[in-house]
Batch of 4 targets.
Target 1
Amino acid sequence: MKWTRINPGSARLRRLRTAAALDDYDPYLIWADLTKFAGFSKLPKDPVTGRKQIPVAAQFGPSYRPANFAGTFTAPILRAGGGYCTGLVPADKLVEFHDLMQPGDRFKMGLPAIPERSHITFSPESIPVPLAIGIIDHGLAFAHRSFRTRDPVTGKTTKTRVQWLWDQDRDRLKHNPGRYWRKVRDMGYGGELDGSRIDELIRACPDESRLYRKIDYDPAYGRYSHGTHIMDVACGGPNPLRDVGNFSNADPADTTRAFEGPASTAPIIAVQLPYRPAKDTSGASLCVHVYDAMSYIARRTRMVKQVVVNLSDGAFGGPHDGSSLLESALDKFLVDNPKFTLVVAAGNAYEARCHAQRSIAPHSAGKPLDWRVLPDDFTDSFQELWLQGSGSATASVSVRPPGETTSKTIRMGEIWVGHEGGEPLCCVLGTMSSPNGPNRGTFFLALAPTRPLTKARAPAPHGVWQVTARNNSAVRLNLDARIERDSPALGDRGPSRQSYFADGKAASHAARAKTLNSVATGSQSIVVGGYFAKGKYFQETANGNRLTEVAPYSSSGPGHPGAGYDAPDVSAPSDESPVMRGLRAAANRSGTSVRLTGTSVAAPIVTRRVANMLAAYTLLPPPPTPGHVKQKLISDHAHPGATVEGPREGAGRIKPGQEP
């Protein structure tokens, strides 16, 4: 493999004028630019000018002036005086946009890592109710009868409880047979259905399969989907888990009690994350789409007293200290909107072998990291090396591709591309500050697919890529290496092509600590781990081999430094038992169900519990803040055994069943 240094301002990287600008740039955007966005979804176009645009999430300081960015930034969501927002930057104006930013400002690309706005006007529409539940997920079968109200006498389903559904597909209005989807006036992209339109569709198409095809809603075409299952656990009526683990004393034959609990009757605001041309499982675009989803839910619930939002999505990369752009934005959003409570899944990375730690002595090299990249991988692969210590500025990293005997050394502030025949196969760059880690040294490694979907791209070598960090300073340097998520989406065929740190020995490269979901280390959200409702599992833990109730995949803390305890905050069942994996809830058609596993399933159990708990406080001033809700949840469900597992158990334990 040949290596070429890429200088800012060169023909290969015109979007960076100077080497100093590298410290403020999103490394994922640099890789996308070098590969002509081959590993990402297509760039949206301005409907008037036809110019290609890049979705970004940005943070501005108090000196931000919208007039200064006229023509370079379309920001549909931005509070007066600066703050966090999302918007579109014309691809040919990216350098100008970057140059206008002040010290401390940052932005991150929100383009999905998959092959292949107009100005905001506040909507007067809202739901005048005391409690609402928001679901941000993939595949939301909104016509399922679990999401409809029921006649208290006959038990028959009547109107839908899904008051709003926003599909964030930027081409949604182009795929709009019958013109059922309407423009989302205050977001600038995608399409939405309101409750009356959903009721109209259900009356016209009792066959749910025909209904989804009638409106070209392909996320619900399959037999099951992640979002439908999560939404049923969080707010379906009846509660599908009321008898899990035999925690409930309710009589199964007593159908009059089945719909008790405000969560089973509360209005639902659902946001479908981008699905076309394929689902982004890497989490690369969450920074834009999750923040937009929260803002959309806020605009549809301005008259609601309490809102509980479930987010069972995330990624492996990032600094994992609460400083990432999305986590910082969500924390500020929750502080500014105290009626909101956000519940986040802890993640399933405990045994994924996607995190490694090193402590490197002065003037020495650390133990090499063996990064095993699998064949037949259709998508790009990424690794981030996060440095901590005053010697970060002088650090370097050496990369040896599979089958080669020599390594290439990259120093901080440099960009090198490995290629054959001119086509980039890999990229390595070092930056002292990035959008996800301000003032934190980072080395970023990107690989092309080992089996590209098009002949236009050359395949990267599969096998073991050896990565070695070197400390060139006089002080000790600590390193966290993280491989980004690359697993197939739920329901997709084919084997998993997730790369990992390999050697399989007792002294493994992989570290199981600090493996939380990339959006689960903020200070304001409630983070949920998973455990077995019944039975225990023999597992190697931080305290040695022992029988444990914690699910083997449930990610480990520590989480946010200011939490005062190890993460997650609480845990809830994610499996019935070690032999009966997963929990059963709704599939995509009424009357059908499916078992799904993971902390994604545990999080909506807590969402339901929080919603039912908050329903008692909606008439009492002042309303509880997210911090109060978290502490109340932990104190009411304190788990005395939490100190045994520490960063995996959570300070509280939720038991599902008939809700109080």
Target 2
Amino acid sequence: MRRGWRLLNKSNGCFLLAAAVAASCLLRGAPAAAGDADRENEACLDCHDDDAIEAGTERGAGLKLYVNPAELDASVHADNDCVDCHQGERTFANSPHNRGQPLKLNCAGGECHTDVVREYQASIHGKGARDGVEKAAQCPDCHGRHDILSADDETSPTNKFNLPKTCGRCHEDLNVVRRQPHHYETAVSDFVDSIHGRALLVSGLAVAPTCTDCHGVHDIAPGDSPESSVSPARIPETCGKCHVKIAPVYAASIHGQLPDDPKKRHPVCNTCHTSHTIHQPDRPVFRLAADKMCGGECHVKELKSYDETFHGKAIALGRPDVATCFDCHGHHDITKIDDPASPVGERRRIETCRKCHPGARERFAGYLVHADHRNRKDYPALYYTYVAMTALLLGVFGFFAIHTALWLYRTAAVRRADPEGFRARKRAEQTDGEYFSRFLPFDRFLHGLVIVSFLLLVATGMPLKYHDAAWAHALLRLFGGQAYAAVLHRIGAIITGGYFAMHLGSVAARLYRGRAEFRRPETGRYSLVLLLKFMVGPDSLVPNGQDFRDLFAHVKWFIGKGERPQFDRWTYWEKFDYMAVFWGVAMIGLSGLIMWFPVFFTRWLPGSAINVAQIIHSDEALLAAGFIFLFHFFNVHLRPEKFPIDPVIFSGRISKTEILHERRKLFERWAQRGELEQHRWRDEWPSWRRIVLPVGYAAWMVGVALIALIIYAIVSH
């Protein structure tokens, strides 16, 4: 019979089929009995099991008219009549072929899916379909058409393991998603990568939730609707269906007991764990985002102060093994600070600290985690420390900025007045064949340690200070992360302590060798006056009155009111550099030790000393880096007379032309004492020049790059 129908033209075939079925129904005078289902379906399939029907009809254009009998026989609707779904009554007169519009499905016909359809019609999908929203999900979009299978069947699109793919047909289609008022473009892919998605799709755990476990099945409502199972009011209930042990703990916490306030979002499960990108709480990705979860919308002020601590900065730089919010405040059982059960309350705070800092005592718990150094009323010690350090920074930078600008202006004027003479003198200083010793090999070795340790300290420390700068993250990646950078920073500190101790030892040795000069000839006893005179003499780096006179004379030359002054072995700016090392090692070193060994130092100091140490360490480090890379580099290397580099600290020698031009007092003193030959250069600098100078240039360029990054971070911040 089917073969005969197919030989006819499709339009004529449909007409004859309609006539035959109509005649049959009229002769019977009543709807076909249920037992005639196979005969009725066979009549429909005479046309609809031919895949050519898709292209051979006009009224059916755009519809899926082809029916695979094998799929229909294997579906849950195998025993149903076609007209049970397609328009209800089993008479051809009431079938879609005699109507002027395409058939609409009738899943609620008879007693089939009445309740389900009612739920669907009230859902966001049903309302969208009723309002004519294009591509609004309808029954066939999820369940299929003639191949509908039970949800228990592993191949069914509504099986829980296949639902992410089924839902993703729409929710990964940007043309569909972006039309929604609150669209989430990566909902499905985020779910697949989450702990729930991996448990479901990778581990194959049937107990893991899928889309419908959270959003509902046929009654899906918008997330901001009170009826929605993922609305803020109902999220704890929805999550609690699986997390049965956590739900009552959360309900008893301060978050669970907060009243619903439409003006302020109530912290619920997805506030912290998010909706689709849920990660295992002990994984780094969750820990690194915890501070922003807590402070993003709720604890904004506390987040800002936490970000200023070492913990906050390290978290921001991608180090997950430091304390974050829930390590101190708890997880689902968070209570008020004044609650005796609170882990950050007075009774339990030290217990909480000891989880990371074993051996910590009561004073340690006095560390101010959320302190604001700008708040004079509540944190006066921090406030005045911050004010003092800021004043020191501005004072030093302000003074030397003016000093450098005046010096540069005066040098430029001298160069313009006699360009040939300026260049000739610079060449002579570099090519003069007569040299004198300025730095001993031991001094140059110590300066090499200064270069290595200082660059290491700045490169590993400044990213922590400017943790929100993109370059800070990139720089720390070169060191393998903040944890490795912290180790290198401590190595730099040890090198600093080492060269400082060696220098003090060399000073003590010089004092011992020159002890005869401290004795009065008439008595043979040591004199404190002679000792002090030796310590502030022309060969000493300790400042004296002459340095202030040299500074005044130099400034007069800057502004054209005096002659260019001549200096002895050390200039006033070199002595400032030298004394700054003592100040810096004391301030940075002591504050760094307090932060390195907080448990040890808080045996005697209050916990707030750690906060004070952090301010001092941070600002003093900025002062040191800024001064060295800006003003020391200018004074030594970048001023036009020396540019691009002064090799004296590497070679240890100074030409006669240079010493007569800048340090005539030293030359005259040596000549008067008959010490010129004693100081004449005898080292093999030319053989080392090709090795040492590239290192010096590299250090110079690294320093310039670092100060450029610091300035950029300050300006952009």
Target 3
Amino acid sequence: MNFKSILIILICIFLFYIINLAINKKESFTSFSPDKILENCKDNFGKDYKNQDCNKSAFVSEPGYLCGICGDDSKNPVTMIRNSKEDKLNYYGCGGTKIYNNGLSWNTNKETITLNKLLAEKITCNNTNKESISNMYLYVCADDLCTKITIDGNSNRVTPVNRGSWKNMNSYFIENIKYGTEVEILVENTGGNGGFCISYIWNKQLYILDNNGFQNTANIINYTSKNNVGWDLYWYNTNQITNLFPWMHNWIKIDNPSNFPKYGSIKFKIGDTQKNGFMTNDITVFLGIDDNGSVLLNGNPIYNKSKQEWNKSIFFNIPNVKDNAKLEFKCINTGGPGGIGVAYLRSGYLFTLPSSVAGFNSVANIMKYTQKNCNGLTYDPSSIKNNLSFLTSWENTSVVGDFSLTTNIGESIPDTWTYPKSNKWMIIEQNKNPIYKWKDLNISSNSNMSISFLLYISNTYNNWRNIFHISNNNNDCCNIGDRVPGLWIYPKSTRLLLVNDIKMINNNKQVGVSTNDGIRLNRDCFITMTWSNTTVSIYENGLLKASRDYKLPLIAAIPEASFYIGDPWYKANEGIQIKDFTIYNYVLSQRQIKDMYKK
């Protein structure tokens, strides 16, 4: 065979490969395809499709074909019809006037549900997760043992947060998880009944097992399992598991032979869900009130708590809730301390109050809300039955009588607040830098946050120099609440002092957190500070330099507290520059801080 013949054969093989690739190309759902919609409509009705004019009213069961077509506003939204067939197949289309010849307008008298933008993008384009990297909380209940958890085959990335006997729900914090990461969980039954249940929160979303309810509001994990012999309500019905989540009531049962131990496992990929066409605009509300109260949606009563015990939390469903609907909780405290804990699920996303659990505020949506007659997230709900254990603190009131909490559906507090000029180096100048109110920053709590920035010091100075300062009283010193917190540079040094308030002890000495080593002059230094409940820490270039546990709660920053970058009480325009000043609405871990420094 000569060279020309070989070349012709290779060209033919190449052309065959290109043609085959085009034929079998997987639908990407990134552009409008009238033919695909018409084909899908005909497939839905089979031989009877002639009775359904798909050219006028396209019933689409594969919502991906609608990616980017229907629009995001109310003029042409994505709509859904819930089919009454046993297969529970849902149909989708555009709810406004038809804009293409072959349909996308329902033209039907059937009742439709108009999907919110969040859900519409999820079930059509589904691009919100594929490029995401997020922290994760994994929850595992196992009778008897959870023996091993691997992340892409690596068991070293899993950090136990709460791990005890089989009667405890175990929780694990896992950082920087990519979409599609493979997770495998191995469990062991050492005798008698055996089973396990899992769920996880990642990228602001809740993922649960099937057959656990909440199909309208949560993502259902697409998984494979071994030694799965059905479902069992035994552990939920007998209330044997401490702080078991309501979405984990039905367990995968492990085969129960006469010989033990018996092993089971579950494997899944992060963000991978079973068909999410069951989800609607419904929301599931999780609520605890001490003592009584009612719930209103856009001013209309939808739930009343008066007959339940004061120390019992509940959950309930509200159908077809639109964007920005006003959800209001009007409560009554009949005596002693009172409080309210609230969370809700919508379109797979979990919205909660701020949590004191390490890292949790980085995995869930933190509700933006207003309150009346409450005095902060200080109520201890540990005595509440069926406790909302993902809400470690509730809004507290000491007022006997009315108190309330109000939020707009879908509104959450941003993950970070960044100084507007953070893309450039800025000089700290006395009385020339901006002043904000603490409430303008939308940071949940000054005792569960982080701050990072680049710091450049060109000289030492004879007096104290301030970098930033939060004050409840708009004063420098020396009363409780004057510094909540503030950061200074020592005189004749480049050491840092971080103060959260002033304690009058030992002849009025300041109590704070100080670094022992000075920062090198004329070099960038990456500064990170974390506030984790009562512990305050300072990092320089990814290394821990100072830490202090105050043992008592830090003085809270009130909404009207003044926030300065370079306060008015110190000459801060002597050789200090900062860049990328960012406040995080959660506590950064040491690993995250090191990764940020490397970048």
Target 4
Amino acid sequence: MATAPLTWKEYWHDKSATRRCASVIGVTLAVFQIYTSLFGSLDALMQRSIHLGLGFLLVFLIYNVKGKEQGRMPILGVVPIIAVFFVIGYILWNYEWITVERYSLISALSWYEKVLGVVCILLVLEAARRVVSPGLLYVAVAFLFYPFVAPFLPGLLRAAPTDWTAILDFNFLSMGGIFGIPLGVSATEIALFIIFGSILMKCGGSTLISNIAFAFAGKTVGGPAKVAVVGSTLFGMISGTATGNVATIGSATIPMMKKSGYSANFAAAVEAAASTGGQLMPPVMGAAAFVMSAFSGIPYSTILKYAIFPAVLYYMSLFFIIDLEARKLKLEPVLADITIRQTIATYGHMIIPIIALLYMLVAGYTPRLAGGVGCVMALVAAQIRKSTRMSLPAMFSSLEDGAVRMLIVMISCATAGIIVGTVDMTGLGHRLGSAFIYLAHGNLLLGLLLGCMVAFILGLGLPTTPAYIVQAATVIPALMGLGLSLPAAHLFAFYFSCLAIITPPDASAAFTAAAIANADAWKTGWMATRLALVAFIVPFMFAYDPGLLLMGPTANIILSVVTASVGVFCLAVSICGYFRRMLGVTERVIAFMAAIALIAPGLVMTSIGAGLILLLLAFQLKGRKSDVVGA
């Protein structure tokens, strides 16, 4: 059901002065993003400066020094806010001189520019600590200090000395570093989709999605868990955030799964794995997908085409596992009074902005324009029926919420700019790429294994976007040097950057789901990793088989789609340990080998996979449950 109408008293009068200022800044930031998406972005540095400046103000108004939300700001809290006005104000006031007359890394910095450069970097680092994680702060600080110690390091880590003023220049008064490509993508594209998702959820979009999911899957075997998968798929297609998916959809689906008979750990793991797929599922995917388009030069609509089938395989695997688990536990369908007719009658019109967004992305319009139009259409569509109609305070609240939600991406991108700037200035990326190729000895499989480890380690310490960005400057060029195609290399790194969200010791999405389910966080993380096993396998397969990315001859694509689909079913059978009856250890191994063979490219592997399936069926038909060892 729709949320209660928000009044001016609730939105404005009941807030402290600090939160009122934050509300004004948040709405201003959201309106700025929508306006520039529809009527044209400003010059690059100006767009990024305003975007980051307003974001800085929001961070220091909302979050205290402990990273917790604050009601009233202490007196010393105004210090970083004043610093923001000086840093961003200097760029905007001297914009023509900085962008036209000045020569980056050549023109000398004045004493006050050096001071402002240091302050700018400190603002980014402090914002990262408050909003993102201390881990990102530590990594960024390490990269900042690297140029000073690099001349004394051995081997490929050695670099020529870099003057400290050059680091300040590159990060403060150039289009690299903090104000580089990552922040540019945040300022022109990512922000719009976050605002769109916020508006949609505030006016009944989450109810529409969850009700549709329940209407289609709720009455089947294992229905509540399938609702989690379907709902998280639909919601993730718009939001692109794993933790947000868990918090929004999981609060409803996890209790339903537990009530139907699933264990708390399994229920939480299903929601975490399903929500993580939102970063992999078009049309929005994660924020890193927009950065991928900027770094690779591949149009965003083309990336969507490449990414769609691997994401479908991921959700197919989850769906199969849930169905088999429900049959193994002999769970009964859950009856509900929700019907698709009632849902469409009440909330169906909110599908209009979603369809408009999808159409514009597929038709080749820029993601920026598609996101802006989607935001406006969501606001307009909400007014069609009383069930979703938003008051003016509710509209402002949705815009403010979108602005707050974009902070983690914005600050991550600005911090990643520092990291990538250091890699560029010191030539570290080129040396690491050469070493990567040397260690792999020209072998693509070994290179993929090394790339997987690097991506996964980065994903444990960094959010998905900066983890991917670091690889774009180091690992991805090396993988391409080993013969991997451009889209496959970028998607390979993207996948493994995402998976740390559910894999211990990081596993933020899994831990969030465990908190909702009152489950063991560590066990939930490992169970979610097992459920998402297909996401660890498929990137290796599309590295060798472009058909999985819907590239190449039509016949090869059809073969890849069919065999891989059967393969993920075999993988689900192996993971769950159940098919027609409980599987023994030997049967689970056969099912796993069949899955790998069927997902792998080539007629030979397909034939081997088919043979293994026949062998598994023979075991199932011949064996008796009491004879199964290790079931």
